[in-house]
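Internal tracking record. Fields below are filled automatically when a chain is submitted to the structure queue. Please do not edit lines marked as system-generated. If the sequence contains nonstandard residues, flag them in the REMARKS field before resubmitting.
Queue: standard
Priority: normal
Entity type: single polypeptide chain
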Amino acid sequence: MKIFKYPSVLTIAGSDSGGGAGIQADLKTFSALGCFGTSAITAITVQNTLGVTAIHSIPASIVQGQIKAVMDDITPSSIKIGMVHTTELANIIGETLKAYDKTQVVFDPVMVATSGDQLIEHNTVSVLKTLLFPLMTLITPNLDEAEILVQQKIYNVEDMMSAAKKLLKTGCYAVLLKGGHLKAEKLYDVYVNQDGAERIFESAYIESGNVHGTGCTLSSAIAAYLALHYSLEDAIEKARIYVFEGILHGANVKTGNGHGPLNHFFNPQKLQLYEME
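SYSTEM-GENERATED OUTPUT FOLLOWS
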C-alpha cells in the first residue's frame, strides 16, 4: 500500500482573537493553499478589528517546546515566523532553529499592527537583527518596520531598494520589502538576495478597508508555496497573487467595525498528497 504525506508548514506567531491576523491567518492560508498547518504560539493578544488592548506572553520554554514537538515529529518543509515581541523569545527561537538549519524560514518581523498598536518591546529589535535575521531564508518587513530596522525614512521605490540592501547586510538570504503603505495606483514590493538578484514586484492598488493581516498572510503564503516545492521567487510571485485576490474578494465584506480581514478562502485548494519515498 502506498503511503503519502502532506506538505506541512509551521507558524511561530501570536494569536489574534479577532481571527484576521497572526496564527489564525497563517493556518487559514496554509489550508487554503493545500498545506497542513502546525503552530507554536508566542503570545495571546486581546484583539479585534478595532485594535489590540492586551498581550499575554507565552513562556519561552513553552514556545521552544512547541517548536521542537512539531519539528521532531511532523518535520514541516518550511517555517513562517511572525510576532516575536520579547528579547527572551527571540533568543530561544534563534537557538532552537539552529538545530533545523536545512528548513527554509520566512520571517515577517511584526512590530506594529494595522491599527497602529505597537506589538514588540523596543530593545527586541536589535536582537532580531543580530540573532534571528542571519538564520532566515527571507524577511518580509513593511515600510513602517523597515524604517525602524534601518533607522531611515522611506518615501519611494528608490528608498525601498536602499533599505532592502541595508537589511541584506544583517545576514539573511533575501529581503522582500513591502510597499503597500505607499498609497498610489500601483503597489511595489522590492526583492533582493545575497546572490545579487534585484526585482521589483508590481500590482494594482485595491481600495479596501479589509487589509488586516495581509502581512501575515503574504509571509504564510510564501512559506506554503515553498513547502509545495516552488522556488523562492516563484513562491513570492504566487503569494502576492493570492493576497491580491484575497483582498479583492473581501473588499465589500463587513467584519467588525474596524480593519477587517481579507478573504482567505476565495478559492481553497484540496490538501495535497505526496507519495513517501
